[in-house]
Amino acid sequence: MRATTIHAPFDMRVEDVPDPRIERPTDVVLRVLRACICGSDLWAYRGVAARQPGQRIGHEFLGVVEEAGPEVRGFAAGDLVVAPFVWSDGTCAYCADGLTTSCVDGGFWGSVGSDGGQGEAVRVPYADGTLVKLPAEAASDDHLLTGLLALSDVLGTGHHAALGAGVTKGSTVAVVGDGAVGLCGVLAARRLGAERIIALGRHTARTDIARRFGATDVVAARGEEAVAAVRELTGGQGAHAVIEAVGTEQSMRTAVAITRDGGAVGYVGVPHGSGTGLDLSDMFDRNVALRGGVAPVRTYIPELLPDVLDGSVDPSPVFDLTVGLEGVPDGYRAMDERTALKVLVTP
Q1: What is the mean pLDDT of residues 307-316?
Q2: Which of 23, 103, 240, 344 has the smallest set of CB atoms within 10 Å of its CB?
Q3: Rounded distance, CA 182 to CA 245, Å?
């Protein structure tokens, strides 16, 4: 089969690789219908995150089960399913607590020895604990299928950030980051009942989507200028809940600075850079909480799925460029050069 591999910074290839097969009785083999490129994939692409030459890549995908192992109980050939970006056994203590990203038997797609989502097919370990079944009729609805793909990562990650930030009905929320996760954070905040949502971003095409998703205000500034603007919009107090969806030192500093005393920052931006930018004394004095991390999206999919199916939540606009599998290297270039927000891959 064909799959995307990474060989060095900026060296993405689509190559022939061995077809996946059932290796354990709890596996399924899934034929990919939709995949995409994540902003976090760019850290490997740019050489910030180390990868072995020839390693697979991609962790967001959905598709159709081609074959199920003899101990798989919940799925059969022909089922349409979505895969969260981490596989999990569904039975360990962490899974029981809903923290599927800490599963003792879990792992990330594209890690050494595993298949990546940017390919024609994937072997899925622990299928019963990992996959979520989708309505079969969704396979013939391109728009819906694209929205459902967001359940594999960005929609659940935005939801995780909103929960960590403590978004409640009537609250004021600020979102730092205008990438796909930040935009899904806007969607999540609206879904949870936020009254005011301030989106921080300098790219009009992206902040237009933020407004479509429910943002009431846009701050097109960074650093101290952004802090001053948010403070002005909130009567000098800041936002009750702040979503941090970038992961840089500057973005974290901004997030803490625009949080209202007694509020919280929900952080889901993959950390990169020299430090966290946190002033613990300031956070202590102002009772600012910090919660977040890797989003256990498998736990959130059952809650979010009905809203995507009925159209009350539609994350599909975050996908603004579509490529075939052979065009994945071009997709990486487009996202790296910021000419695309999030690239949809149709193998």
Answers
A1: 98
A2: 23
A3: 5
Amino acid at 230: V
Rg over alpha carbons for the chain, rounded to the nearest Å, is: 20
DSSP string for residues in 51-113: --TTEE----EEEEEEEE-TT--S--TT-EEEE-SEE--S-SHHHHTT-GGG-TT-EETTSTT
User: Do the Cβ atoms of 210 and 201 come closer than 8 Å?
Assistant: yes
Q: Give me the domains of the chain, ranges plus CATH numbers.
A: 2-153+296-346 (3.90.180.10), 155-292 (3.40.50.720)
| Maximal C-alpha separation, the chain | 61
Surface-to-core class of residue 285, CB atoms within 10 Å of its CB (0-12 exposed, 13-18 middle, 19+ buried) = exposed
Buried b (16+ CB within 10 A) or exposed e, 235-265: eebbbbbbbbbbbbbebbbbbbbbbbeebbb
At residue 275 the predicted structure's pLDDT band, cuts being 50, 70 and 90, is: low
What phi, psi does 332 have (nearest 5°)?
A: -60, -45
The one-letter amino acid code at 60 reads: E
Residue with tokens 């950030």: 161
